[in-house]
Amino acid sequence: QPHFSHRDGELFVEDVALRELAREHGTPLFVYSKAAMLSALAAYQRGFAGRKARICYAMKANSSLAVLQVFAQAGCGFDIVSGGELQRALAAGGRPADIIFSGVGKTRAEMRQALDSGIGCFNVESEAELEVLSEVATAAGAVAPVSIRVNPDVDPKTHPYISTGLKGNKFGVAHDRALAAYRRAAALPGLRVVGIDCHIGSQITAAAPYLDAMDRILDLVESVEAAGIALPHIDFGGGLGIAYQGEQPPAADALWARLFEKLDARGFGDRQFLIEPGRSLVGNAGACLTEVLYLKPGEQKNFCVVDAAMNDLPRPAMYQAWHAIVPLGASSAAASTYDIVGPVCESGDWIARDRELAVRPGDVLAVLSAGAYCMSMASNYNSRGRAAEVLVDGDRAVLIRARETVADQMRMERLLP
Ligand code: LLP
């Protein structure tokens, strides 16, 4: 995480000491670097220089309004998966025409809301959805721009919960049904075909699955267009991984250089491209600060109990994910091997296992690579309020989300009469 680095033994994000932020705002606290987001985005922009391409940030990775604002101001569109995400994208200044709507379970109400907003494209995930969307559009006196999400059936070699492009998972239309689905879409009165899309999975660290998927998609573009249905854009989804623990995913520009070699060779280099990156834009732009509450030595394990938990950082519990954990500064404590765990009443509430740390109660730790799929997946389990968030830009730090109070949590509830 280049924008998070130690200076004279103190951990900084850009030009701000994390210890100061923890002192001012308390913990658990998510801290993001604007420069890190923009530099991750710049790698994609370099890869697309001279091409027709739009980067639609997959906002499920981190949907905090100020984060969306950074990407909207940098010229990004958004990939959304719900009416709630649509409202957030618009509230943050997203341009409706640059919004694409993915997801297997769009409701009629969400379709109507997206049509009324004038979004750029519906990424349709099933033949049944084509029928419903056409009905909703016709009733609204509109024509819905659609792309069909095709399942290219390649193995992204990632965690099974986040691989999506294989046969046998719920996403997309099977490759061998795609032509029929496009024929149906072209015949429906409420739809206008504007493209094709795929998304093969997340935290992908090799180029090969992308290269294979691109071949499979281009084969389909050829056969759909041979049937007389034009596909003005190709949306290649997201999924590029980040380094959590020394992984070496291809850089976005290097990956796209290889993809464009293939596209140029097959005569598709001048199409309009869309991509939907999430994690690779924000994952390594964030950290979660958490205070050590107790050290609990044991016979088999030593536990380091911190004030962040699985409700703040759900990835270890859900995917056995590994996040680096570093102290904010030097400690005079003796080093020991700990499992770092939260206060939630579940054995699954762990943040890291078997880590060597020199800490004592009151010290603050930074859980790194926490910009993606942490705050956006946070919950109130154990009636824990969600953490506060700060965005740093150079030497300035702005509180972009206040810590959630118990009153906030109980606001929608009613006692029995
Ligand atoms: N487009 C579609 C249709 C998606 O389903 C996703 C992610 C993306 C784009 C963005 O993928 P990314 O570039 O972020 O890999 N919670 C899991 C990850 C779930 C990904 C879901 N889909 C985790 O924490 O690892």
Automatic annotation (TrEMBL):
Domain Orn/DAP/Arg decarboxylase 2 C-terminal residues, every copy: 33-371
Asked if the Swiss-Prot or TrEMBL record annotates the protein with the keyword Lyase, the reply is yes
Pathway per its UniProt entry is:
Amino-acid biosynthesis; L-lysine biosynthesis via DAP pathway; L-lysine from DL-2,6-diaminopimelate: step 1/1
Give me the residues that bind pyridoxal 5'-phosphate, please: 239, 276-279, 373
Per the UniProt entry, the Enzyme Commission number(s) are 4.1.1.20
Required co-factors: pyridoxal 5'-phosphate
Q: Which residues carry this modification: N6-(pyridoxal phosphate)lysine?
A: 60
Active site (record annotation): 345 (proton donor)
Which annotated residues bind substrate?
279, 315, 319, 346, 373
Against HAMAP family, the record matches this protein to: LysA
| Role summary | Specifically catalyzes the decarboxylation of meso-diaminopimelate (meso-DAP) to L-lysine.
Q: Which family does it belong to?
A: Belongs to the Orn/Lys/Arg decarboxylase class-II family. LysA subfamily.
Q: What is this protein called?
A: Diaminopimelate decarboxylase
